[in-house]
Amino acid sequence: MENEIEIVLVEDNPNDMELTLRALKKNNIANNIVVLGDGKLALDYLYGRGEFADRDPGVNPRLILLDLKLPKMDGLEVLKVIKSDPEKKMIPVVMLTSSKEECDVVESYRLGVNSYIVKPVDFDNFVEAIRNIGFYWLLMNECPSYMKD
């Protein structure tokens, strides 16, 4: 399968990253995940720059799980770049964050986020939220055929 990477997880908090990976594994979702710790790395990965220069930037992930509060470049800045690029804007982006701030929700949608989910505190609820995200975005959501290759 040309598009090996199903999910790009952009998360700087090691605990949240581990919880997300455990929840994905528990739900048998996406064997192929790339974890990136800051917004700049996320864009370097998507565009095949820096340490990812050998990566084909024409092959997009099926889903990006993006934290809001990130070092170097925050989630809103990353989202703005992705959604303003004709080659990347169709990648579903789910903001997965602990922020319940109305201004963050509004700005995320204004910039084109596909979904905004506040991370549940309880692990079982978090696992269920990740299951729902994976089920919807990877199995139910119909995307253009070129994104499935």
Care to give the gist of this entry?
This protein has 149 residues and is of the alpha/beta class. Helix content is 42%, strand content 14%.
Describe this structure in words.
The chain has 149 residues and is an alpha/beta fold. The protein has one domain: Response regulator (Rossmann fold, 3-Layer(aba) Sandwich). It has a 5-stranded parallel β-sheet, sandwiched between helices. Helix 1 crosses helix 5. The longest helix has 18 residues. The chain starts with 6 loop residues before the first strand and ends with a helix. The relative contact order is 0.19.
Secondary-structure map:
Blueprint: E1 7-10, H1 14-26, E2 33-36, H2 39-47, E3 63-66, H3 75-83, E4 93-97, H4 102-110, E5 115-118, H5 123-140, H6 145-148
Parallel strand pairs: 1-2, 1-3, 3-4, 4-5
Helix and strand sequence = EHEHEHEHEHH
User: In percent, how helical is the residue content?
Assistant: 40-55%
Number of structural units classed as domains: 1
The general outline is: globular
The major pleated sheet works out as:
5 strands, parallel
